[in-house]
Design a protein that fits this description.
Elements: E1 8-12, H1 20-34, E2 40-44, H2 52-64, E3 68-73, H3 75-89, E4 95-100, H4 105-111, H5 115-125, E5 130-133, H6 136-144, E6 150-152, E7 173-177, H7 186-198, E8 204-208, H8 216-225, E9 230-234, H9 241-245, E10 250-253, H10 264-272, E11 276-279, H11 284-287, E12 295-297, H12 302-314, H13 316-330, H14 335-348
Length: about 350
């Protein structure tokens, strides 16, 4: 792009690595491009080569020369980049919105910032045309923190057409797809699977996702205890996740991750129609209904998880009901719906593409 003036700039991390923010931004880029918006300049905040400080300086220049900016940032990105926008907005008519990545931005504002820091940062955020929250709970939390420009815009996912149908090849096969770390509930899930099999059940667990270094040894140790019933399968490419999910009996994600909003994997589960067993945590009950579109368990509860897994694997009518219910939940999260919603908001803000 050189030094040419960029009318519309998109700023955020892109995949790889395949984590929540990168995947979200890949889908947003795909969606905007698909509807014919080809004049957006895409700035990846992950430094792929060279020094990070040079990338940061380049970003400052891009922000200074842009008319309208789409930010899609996680916690650290928001803290470092939004102040740059605010500074330039004092001297120009630059416009911007923020897609909030993650579900705990309101907690970050209310609990992890001092009073003065919070008031200053909220003032900066209120110079944006819009702050796009992924959940109703987050929207309310941000408004309670003092933001006056919050809109509900869900986390987008692509539907590849793969659909779950229960047959004998899938029976009693559980899948976990997420970052492999304690707060995602993986240790609770592994313990539940180990105990269920000791009690006479025949349930397998396949684990996909990047492993946090602190849990590699524990993952290996518990996998050995499972006597072949738990297998770590590595990292799955985003474009095959939905088809992968369709090949299992159910997905389990007993998360208690502090920053949890709506994990993208649950949206992809909805696209596929696979039954899910999830924790009653943060905003998850906002999206799903127990015994209708998900089976809820209490976070940290091995016994509760065992009971619900046992019930689900023995009740095919429940599994089918959950499959139908979760597909309805996923409808508003299709990339096409999110882009349509976003463009409607941009029109309200008098943006031009």
């Amino acid at each position: 792009m050189g030094r040419r003036k960029c009318k519309t700039l998109f700023v955020g991390p892109f995949a790889p690595p395949y984590n929540g923010d990168g995947i979200k931004n890949n889908y947003l880029k795909e969606g905007f491009t698909k509807v014919g918006i080809s004049n957006i300049c895409w700035f990846d905040t992950i430094t792929r080569k060279g020094l990070p400080v040079l990338s940061y300086i380049k970003l400052v220049g891009k922000i200074a020369s842009s008319h309208q900016i789409i930010f899609s940032l996680n916690r650290n990105g928001r803290l470092y980049i939004i102040p740059i926008f605010w500074f330039f907005s004092l001297f120009s008519k630059i416009k911007a919105v923020l897609y909030v990545v993650g579900g705990s931005f309101d907690l970050q504002l209310r609990e992890y910032m001092s009073g003065l820091h919070r008031r200053i940062f909220v003032k900066m955020l209120n110079r944006l045309d819009g702050v796009f929250a992924e959940s109703v709970a987050l929207k309310k939390g941000l408004e309670a923190a003092g933001l006056n420009n919050v809109e509900l815009v869900y986390n987008p996912r692509r539907d590849d057409g793969s659909r779950w149908i229960l047959d004998n090849s899938k029976r009693n096969k559980c899948v976990f797809v997420s970052r492999v770390t304690e707060t995602k509930g993986i240790l609770v899930l592994m313990q539940a699977i180990i105990e269920l099999n000791k009690e006479g059940e025949d349930i397998s667990l396949d684990i996909y996702g990047p492993v946090d270094s602190d849990y590699k040894d524990e993952l290996s140790e518990m996998t050995q205890k499972a006597l072949g019933k738990i297998t770590y399968k590595g990292i799955v490419e985003p474009n095959v996740v939905q088809a992968l999910l369709s090949s299992y009996h159910f997905l389990a994600l007993p998360t208690f991750h502090p920053g949890e909003g709506l994990p993208g994997i649950l949206v992809e589960a909805g696209m596929a129609g696979i039954p899910i067993v999830i924790s009653r945590f943060n905003a998850l009950p906002e999206y799903f209904t127990h015994n209708e579109s998900a089976v809820f368990v209490e976070a940290h509860s091995v016994e509760g998880l065992k009971a619900e897994i046992r019930r689900l694997t023995k009740d095919d009518r429940l599994a089918q009901k959950l499959s139908e219910g979760i597909q309805k939940v996923a409808v508003p999260f299709r990339v096409e719906s999110i882009i349509e919603r976003s463009l409607g908001l941009f029109e309200q803000y008098n943006w031009k593409f």
